[in-house]
Each structure stands twice: as C-alpha cells, then as structure tokens.
Write a structure and sequence with these properties.
By secondary structure, the chain is α/β, with parallel strands linked by helices. The chain has 2 domains: 194 residues, 3-Layer(aba) Sandwich (Rossmann fold); 94 residues, no CATH class. An 8-stranded mixed sheet has the order 5-6-7-3-8-9-12-11, with helices on both faces. A 3-stranded antiparallel sheet has the order 2-1-4. A two-stranded antiparallel sheet has the order 10-13. A hairpin with a 2-residue loop joins β8 and β9. About 3% of the residues have low confidence.
Amino acid sequence: MTTPLLEARGLSKHYPFPRSVRQWVGNAPARVLRAVDDVDLTVESGRTLGVVGETGSGKSTLGRLLLRLERPTSGQVLIDGSSPDTAGAARAHQLRRDVQVVLQDPYTSLNPYLTIGSAIEEVLTVGGMTSREERRARVAELLEQVGFPAAWSERKPGQLSGGGRQRVSIARALAAGPRLIVADEPVSALDVSVQAQVLNLFQRLQRELDLAYVFITHDLAVLERIADRVVVLYLGRVVETGPADALFAGPAHPYTQALLNAAPALGRSRSTSSAVAGELPDPASPPAGCTFHTRCPFVMDVCRTTRPRLTPIAGGLQAACHLHEGSTPDPDPPATP
C-alpha cells in the first residue's frame, strides 16, 4: 500500500477550563472541552477529503491541527509518513510548505494596504526566492493560474470582489508550492454564482497540479460536487466516513441522514428521517453513551449507556451507530484530561 500524503492518527484536542474556587477547595477535576476527540483520517495525493458537521462539531479545530497551528493533546499528524516534529530542520520546513491553507473570509485574510502582487510576493520571499525579477514573473504566473491578468498585481484587495479576493488567497497558497491545501469554508462567504466559479477553479487546479484538498464546510451540496471521501463530525468525533458517492447515496448514520434532509436540494430523493432536531449538547458536558442519542429519532436503551465504535458497513462506509449489526462498544473516556 502507498503511504498517504497526509494521515492523522488518534488526533485529539482538549481545552481544560480554569477551575473555580469551589473546585479547588473540593479538589474536583477541571471541566474539559473535547473539541476534537480521537480522529483518524487519511488524504491521498490528488484527492479531496470533505469534512462536514454543524457549527461546534470541531471542523475548524481539526483543520488547525492538520496545519500544525495548534498542538494536539494526543495523536499525531504525518505527512508522507513523517512527522514535522521529529524530522530534521530542512525536512520539517519542506513538510510544512507541503500543506497550505485557504481561509473562509477573503475580506480579512488579505492585508488591505498591500497590493495583491505584494501579498503573493511576500510568500516567495519567505520561501527563499531572492531575485526580484523571478518573484514578479512567478506572481504573474500565479495570477494567470487563478484567472487574473498579470497587470492586476498592482491592485489592492479593496478593488476586487469577494470571489476575486478568494482567488488571490488561492494564488497566495499556491506560491509556497504545496501538495495539499486545507480549505476552511472557502466559499461560504460568497454568492452562489461566485461559489460555482471558485469551485471550478479548485477542481481545475487539482487536475493541473495534482493537488490534494481537505475541504471543510457545512454545505453538503459543495461536498457532493468536489469530495472523493467524506468525514462527518459530531461533537469532535467521527460518526461516519467513507466514499462520497456511497455516503450521499445511502447515509448510514442518523446524524448524516438528518444533515442531508436539512440541506437545500441536492438533486436526490430524500430519506424518511427528519432533519436535525434539538440543540447541540454542551461540548464540555457531552451526553453519556452515543453523544447523538439526545437528538436521534431511533434512540435505543444501549445508546444512552454505551458509545458505539466505527463499524464497516456496505459500500465502504463506516458508521458509529448501534443500529448496524456488528457495532462494538467504545468505552466512554475518563472525565479528566
């Protein structure tokens, strides 16, 4: 088997709350927010992994962990089978350049006082390109790759539309020569027609440059169009994962079914289960057993006491749900970090 371009093993990020005076006096353990909890995933070269879930499900925290912007509480992130934390300085630098980011809001991700050419050129300077002529030629090439004429390098972000700014953000990410881009809600701030144009750009660049993507979004219509595999998060844990076509054709977990039913028309028939009901539980005090049982229309007694483990089912899918024969319990984690 080939080594995945990016792999996360048992990735967790827990944020302990400061203890109150009463907790100090009673020697009570601090409450812990489990933003990401024991997540495994892989991304192959030239492929797109979609990450979806409600607000508060841990999507963006997972993205920051993959980018090494935050240190995990446990687990590790491997790039080509190597960890930047244990590689030599030169190798670690290259591994970090291999993974770049496109942020959600193009209005705040660019410096309004710099021209778009200067914003891209800054990345090339940090990357070690010392010749000014080479940098400017590379800036012109990157702008043309995202659909802009080279003369636009002298424009400032305020002179561009939201879609134009996001194209500049993509060009800036490409300036580092990445092999994988983590895109955190990259089209959610754009109009629908502009979303389609930016998604087309992502797909064209993937074909031309053999790029891999981790596409983080709450929009299932976007994932249905662009993703090869999908990871569904709920309260920081993976509840379903598998090939995108199989997941959209027949989701196995009630949470995934509810997300699909709550989404705008995606060009497919709807299942009979209802949309997501109720409020997301407090992530610092998640329910015992299956954390989705407080909102699940198919809840059983075992769901309230025993956490299900990801279980292989038909179509290459895996789901953490007691509804599927052969699911095995996953013991609840201890109360303290």
